[in-house]
Design a protein that fits this description.
Blueprint lengths: L2 H8 L6 H7 L11 H22 L5 H11 L2 H11 L9 H5 L6 H19 L1 H16 L11 H11 L6 E8 L6 E8 L4 E7 L2 H16 L5 H7 L12
Antiparallel strand pairs: 1-2, 2-3
Helix pairs in contact: 2-7, 3-4, 3-7, 3-8, 5-7, 7-8, 9-10
Length: 244
């Protein structure tokens, strides 16, 4: 992709082409590189995304807004935007970095995109940078649920169960596989009230718990508490209405 194509996709034509060139220059290529522009672009990005979230989600509190912003500006999110832009072939890399596939590396592409935001800010001011960032993030924001974005599976499962007054799940390590230096953990997640029993696997106990929680969350969304099911079937729960 040519610099002209990239500028069309960004929605900004540089008055100073040298800023575009610098934003696309990795340190392995030489000087001036894009590291200072990346520093600037990171701040601009955080400000613009915070503004966009503030305007779009007017009933969401600051804690949830902060979590959503952190998710939207993290490396993986920037990498996905850079891939959508087809930014990789435009990045100027040193010979070694180029041979090792640096144009596909998430850290390089994410940093380069931030540098582009910084370059647009210097070239056209805050409104120009806001327009570029808004254009890239608008399709993402259209699908964002601020209540769930950035939360892990265990947290989402806990919140789901609490909202329905169902006791929290119980996690247990039921097995480990492989050698000590490369073990795979198996963790069971139990939710007796919903008759859910699932196994998750991962390279650590935490990863296995998250995998199990994700499976349990999917099933929990499809099931009602056992007492509710019995009532719908016309069978009384012996604990309903009990007095201690």
């Amino acid at each position: 992709m040519s610099p002209d194509d990239l500028q069309r996709r960004l929605g900004h034509r540089f008055s100073d082409p040298a800023l575009l060139t610098q934003a696309l220059t990795h340190r392995s290529f030489g000087q001036p590189n894009n590291e200072r522009l990346e520093f600037l672009g990171d701040s601009v990005l955080n400000c613009v995304v915070a503004t966009l979230l503030y305007e779009r989600f007017q009933t969401v509190d600051e804690g949830d807004l902060s979590r959503v912003r952190a998710t939207l500006v993290k490396q993986q999110s920037l990498f996905e935007l850079a891939m959508r832009l087809e930014l990789g072939p435009c990045v100027r890399l040193g010979e070694g970095e180029s041979r090792s596939g640096g144009f596909r590396r998430p850290s390089i592409l994410a940093d380069c995109l931030e540098a582009l935001f910084g370059a647009v800010f210097l070239d056209g001011g805050f409104l120009a940078a806001r327009a570029v960032i808004h254009g890239l993030y608008d399709p993402v924001l259209a699908t964002v649920d601020p209540r769930t974005l950035g939360k892990d599976a265990k947290t989402l499962l806990q919140e789901h169960l609490q909202s329905k007054r169902i006791p929290l799940p119980v996690y247990s390590v039921v097995g480990t596989l492989g050698a000590a230096h490369s073990q795979t953990f198996e963790v069971e997640c139990l939710i007796p009230k919903l008759d859910i029993q699932v196994l998750g696997r991962g390279g650590s106990r935490r990863a296995a718990e998250q995998a199990a929680a994700l499976l349990a969350l999917e099933r929990a969304g499809q099931r009602a508490p056992a007492s509710a099911s019995r009532r719908r079937a016309g069978t009384a729960d012996p604990t309903d209405g009990a007095v201690s």
